[in-house]
Amino acid sequence: MKILGFKQQAVAGQPRCQRPQSVSIISIMMAILLCVSAQAGGPVKIAISADKSSVWTGSQTQLDVQLVDPDNQPADSTKLWNLTLDVISPSGQITIQSLVMQPGERSKTITLPVNEAGVWKVLAKDKELFEAAIVLNAMDPPSDRGPPVEGGISIEDLLGAKLGIVPQVEMRITPQRKLLADGKDSATVYGLLSGDAAIATEDIRLRLHHTDGSMEPAEVLIAKGEFSGTTKLVSDHPGEVEVEYLGAVPAAKLVGPETLSVKFGAPIIKMEAISSPPQISLLASSEIVVRLLSSDGIPLATDEARDIFLTIEKGDGLLDVKEFTIAAGSAESRVSFKPTAVGEVVLAAASPNLLSVQVPLAVTWPVLLLLASALGGSAGGMLAFAIEKAAKWWRIAIGLLTGFVLYWVAVFVGIDAIAGGFALNPLSAFVISVIGGWAGTKVFTPLLKRMGLPA
Predict the structure, then answer these.
(1) CB-count burial class (<10 Å; 0-12, 13-18, 19+) for 161
(2) Domain membership flag for residue 147
(3) How far apart are CA 140 and CA 118, in angstroms?
């Protein structure tokens, strides 16, 4: 059964990031950085709103789904978003629907037909955005003449029939995710009337106590003629905040737990990923640094372990690990990337509820190192040709080859203390290759033994 309809709101469009026609590494890298910068000011959360949380069955409720920034202000989409909507009916039936936000859009309106009495919940989510949820309390009209607001029966007649009955109330909080302790990301606290007296015959004020943060308004008001009310809770301290029901004026019977809890975490809004250094030769490696940031771009330690996923979007190379964790209490983590081909490399870092970011990296030929190795190998071969008796002229060519082989072993395999960074400078390349050129084919014996092959 289809229960959702969509009506797109008119919004101003924005240009999309486009790849330049030039294929130079510099222009491509600049385009990538511009795209990442554009995303940095885009949406980070989803918001759902409605005129009120009290609805009559048989009616259609309009819900507004928005993309918002860290300050809860509408933010134009910088790319196509495919949001998932979970609509949960009072009987527990779940309907999953896709909601597409085109580039430049910031909101869409959902039409929700309410055909069952009780508590409805709508959850909007995306793997890169903080999810949002809304609760609606639905009540059957008292007669077949339709909801009171449509003239089927007067509000006063309806309320008169409920006088003298102590209402039942239950507490709910949305969303269920850990909220950001930035004083802006809010939990909605609901007071929902239920049972036969599920409508307020007069204003009902629910008195609440919260252990931290601030609540606005300070109490939940269920207005006369309504059957639900809300308030907002925010905090700027990571930790768990308890919301306790103290009572109601006039009296109401609480159904369910007296205390509900809301978890607030470090206000990490985004992440950045950089390569250090941003340009390397084919023989070198680069550290990929992933940092967690606040809305102001300041590194912020996470209060719980964060999973990070790295992928190679373009180019060739090897990552130490493709999945790693930023430990609790830390703001960053690093992995090593080793290229296997020359050219442009683009890595992408992703983490739940955070926008994915790209890392450009340029890989060049190690021209100076190769030249130093060639000169060193040739020099070693010439020394051997000059000293060895009965040596032929091609001993120089052999020295060129074996000098490069020994240098390759020093860089990629390791020779005790001469390995990695110690070998990645022209002087080391020259000296190691001179030794290899001098030794000639003897360099293959220890190499074969180290590889477990017969010499």
Answers:
(1) middle
(2) no
(3) 9
pLDDT tens across the length of the chain (455 residues): 333 443 333 333 333 344 433 334 444 443 444 344 334 468 999 999 998 899 989 899 999 999 999 999 999 988 999 999 999 999 999 999 999 999 999 999 999 999 999 999 999 999 999 999 999 999 888 765 555 555 445 555 555 555 667 889 999 999 999 999 999 999 999 999 987 667 888 899 999 999 999 999 999 999 988 999 999 999 999 999 999 999 999 999 999 999 999 999 999 999 999 999 999 999 889 999 999 999 999 999 999 999 999 999 999 999 999 999 999 999 999 999 999 999 999 999 999 999 999 999 999 999 999 999 999 999 999 999 999 888 888 999 999 999 999 888 888 776 655 555 677 889 989 999 999 999 999 888 877 777 777 76
Residue 219 lies in a domain: yes
Same domain, 276 and 257: no
Q: Are residues 243 and 179 in the same domain?
A: yes
How much is the pTM? Answer: 0.79
- Answer with the one of 265, 287, 317 that is the final residue of a domain: 265
Same domain (yes/no): 191, 87: no
The letter for the amino acid at 5 is: G
3-class DSSP assignment, residue 181 = coil
* Domain span holding position 399: 367-450
The reply to whether 60 and 90 lie within a common domain is: yes
Q: Residue 436's Cα: distance from chain center in Å?
A: 50
E-assigned strand segments in 270-353: 270-276, 279-281, 286-293, 306-314, 317-319, 323-326, 332-339, 343-351
Contact criterion met (CB below 8 Å) for 135 and 192? yes
* 91 in the same domain as 3: yes
| 16/133 same-domain check | yes
Mark whether 124 and 228 lie in a shared domain.
no
Our count of domains for the chain comes to: 4
CATH code for position 318: 2.60.40.10
Q: How many angstroms separate the CA atoms of 370 and 374, rounded? A: 6
Contacts of 309 by beta carbon, 8 Å cutoff, 6+ apart: 322, 323, 349, 350, 351
